[in-house]
UniProtKB/TrEMBL annotation:
Protein name stated in the entry: N-acetylmuramoyl-L-alanine amidase
One Pfam family matching this protein: Amidase_3
Alphabetized UniProt keyword annotations: Hydrolase
Gene3D superfamilies (alphabetical): 2.60.40.3500, Copper amine oxidase-like, N-terminal domain (3.30.457.10), Zn-dependent exopeptidases (3.40.630.40)
UniProt key word Nuclease: no
Transmembrane feature ranges: none
Ribonucleoprotein is among the record's keywords: no
Compositionally biased spans, kind Polar residues: 272-284
Superkingdom of this protein's organism: Bacteria
């Protein structure tokens, strides 16, 4: 009996270890079956999660991904020649030819070695069709794409190179007695638009990669099955969201010239005329201090940015039956940072002091117009299907990391994160780089702090605590003060 119990216990421990170490599955490649116990990654292309028949996996210490699903989503043309076993990936500027099981490739006619000898392979889950798996970083960077990895969240992100598009106009017009056509126009052709999605809350939306906007962020339609149209800017995309009201049909397409998103919705018959009245204006600057504040002349200024706000709630988390939004918690923490800094004689400008939504571009523009010494944005992290993800991390832009101000963005970020961890004893997820709009568009050193995970119940409970918010705020303020003595604002 004891031997039997011990055997069961050992088997149980082995199974648990397998789950801790990775995800067990049987893969077929190179004429045989192989057990895979490594990590499986989520895949995001231009900010949207992509579901693939075979998930991204680690092969010879390099991540490989299904070539067609990833790179066609990025606008490339992907082909496969069975006779030669060659994969072709073509964009307007680049042609790549890879051969199955060969660790070299032709890039625009020149033969190059694939790092670490990770050759493309035909890989299948047991009993399923094979997928052509290619090294994601090599291919992405060869065609000018940006790729990043988050090993903690097991996430790979591939993004088109930034070619910023600006949404410049929105119009609506009546079509028959019960339909409305809404046209959102950009200043140049839209290269990447996500497939439209209808949520359970009757919100019909699409995401435009690498876009900003210079129009209002909310329009009342109240016709043809549409209540409002909302525009929201995120770091790698701008979302066009249509709030439906008993719509019977809906469609969203790019115009023939690629410069407009055309939305057609039908609803109950109505005699009213759609007006597309703006309900809010993004051109109104944040309430704290626009450009001409004579009281700030000649002073060193810190601009504090409470993430999200207004029509953009940010991430959300549930605790004890209640839903809590990122925008409210970030504002509360940021106000505490403001108070601590002001008590230390530092002049502070807030991008928002209430439930407003200045665009990401406007937040950075405010800091530049104020000739600020430092810019700090406060956010809260989130992740799907990983409720145990925890800790604080901070980002700076590699393209805004000069030392013209006496300290770099990386130094500012390092100082803030170390002081926050000192106060909260959270897991330190590190100082990272990312090209967030608010940090890369600033002239001065800038950092974006993620104070924890709103999707982690323990961390959310902390975030709702006034004492814990004060700890975070104290850490942020101490990090700013630590950097402050090094800062000299250049004379324009």
């Amino acid at each position: 009996m004891r031997k039997h119990t011990t055997a069961i216990l050992l088997a149980f421990i082995f199974i648990i270890q397998a789950f801790v170490q990775g995800h067990a599955m049987t893969l077929e490649y190179d004429g045989g079956r192989h057990e895979y116990n490594g990590s499986i990654y989520d895949l995001y292309v231009n900010g949207s999660k992509i579901q693939t028949p075979l998930e991204p996996i680690i092969f010879n210490d390099r991540a490989v991904v299904p070539v067609r699903e990833v790179f066609e989503a990025l606008g490339a043309t992907v082909g496969y020649e069975h006779d030669t076993r060659q994969v072709t990936i073509e964009t307007n500027d680049t042609s790549i030819i890879l051969t199955i099981n060969q660790n070299t490739a032709l890039v625009n006619g020149s033969r190059v070695s694939i790092p670490d000898g990770v050759a493309p392979k035909l890989i299948a889950k047991a009993g399923e069709s094979a997928k052509t798996m290619v090294p994601v970083r090599f291919v992405s960077e060869s065609i000018g794409m940006d790729v990043s990895f988050d090993n903690d969240l097991k996430r790979i992100s591939v993004n088109s190179p930034r070619k910023d598009i600006t949404l410049t106009n929105l119009t609506s017009s009546k079509v028959g007695t019960s339909s409305v056509k809404i046209t959102v126009t950009a200043d140049k052709a839209i290269e990447s638009m996500s497939n439209p999605v209808l949520t359970s809350n009757n919100v019909y939306y699409t995401d435009i990669a690498n876009a900003t906007y210079k129009i209002n962020n909310s329009y009342e339609i109240n016709y043809g099955g549409v209540k409002t149209v909302r525009i929201g800017e995120h770091d790698t995309y701008t979302r066009i969201a249509v709030d439906l009201d008993r719509a019977t049909s809906y469609d969203m397409q790019l115009s023939s010239d690629g410069k407009s998103v055309v939305i057609t919705v039908s609803g109950a018959a109505s005699t009213a005329v759609p007006t597309a009245n703006p309900t809010a204006s993004p051109t109104v600057k944040p309430s704290a201090a626009p450009t001409a504040n004579p009281g700030n002349a000649g002073k060193k200024i810190v601009v504090l940015d409470a993430g999200h706000g207004g029509s953009d709630p940010g991430a959300s988390g549930s605790l004890d039956g209640s839903v809590h939004q990122e925008k409210d918690i970030t504002l509360s923490i940021t106000k505490k940072v403001q108070s601590i800094l002001q008590n230390n004689g530092i002049t502070v400008v807030m991008t928002r002091s209430g439930d407003l939504y200045p665009t990401l571009t406007e937040r950075a523009e405010l800091a530049n117009q104020q000739n600020a010494a430092l810019f700090v944005s406060i956010h809260i992290n989130s992740v799907e299907n990983a409720p145990s993800a925890s800790g604080a991390e901070i980002y700076y832009s590699a393209s805004n990391n000069g030392d013209d101000y006496g300290a770099t963005s990386k130094e500012l970020a390092s100082n803030i994160l170390s002081e926050v961890i000192k106060q909260t004893n959270q897991r330190n997820r590190g100082v990272k780089t990312a090209e967030h709009v608010v940090t890369r568009s600033c002239n001065m050193p800038a950092a974006l702090l993620e104070v924890g995970f709103i999707t982690n119940e323990e961390e959310l409970r902390n975030m709702l605590s006034d004492s814990w918010q004060t700890k975070v705020a104290t850490g942020v303020a101490n990090g700013i003060i630590k950097t402050w003595s090094e800062i000299t604002v250049p004379v324009n």
